[in-house]
Amino acid sequence: ACCQLEHRGEAAYFGMFAVRPGLQGGGLGKLIIAEAERTARAGWGVAEMHMTVISVRDDLIAWYERRGYRRTGQLTPFPYGDER
């Protein structure tokens, strides 16, 4: 499992989150996001976590919503062809 966590001024950014399929459903994702939230609060003193989630992943969006996250309504096109 892995994630990206960045301090971005008044907020943290959580991204590139993945849990190996065979390990999904066992609570590892909950532990990782909880630790990211703890780091953002205690380490950086921020109260907001921002992220981008692919809009067609309704199951993933629901997972975040069950953890207290909410949709902002901000939509960004998927970066097809991004050469990063």
UniProtKB/TrEMBL annotation:
Top-rank taxon, per record: Bacteria
Record domain N-acetyltransferase: where: 1-84
SUPFAM superfamilies per UniProt: Acyl-CoA N-acyltransferases (Nat)
GO MF assignments: acyltransferase activity, transferring groups other than amino-acyl groups
InterPro entries to which the protein is assigned, alphabetical: Acyl_CoA_acyltransferase, GNAT_dom
PROSITE patterns documented for this protein: GNAT
UniProt keyword list: Transferase
Pfam families membership: Acetyltransf_7
Name of this protein: GNAT family N-acetyltransferase
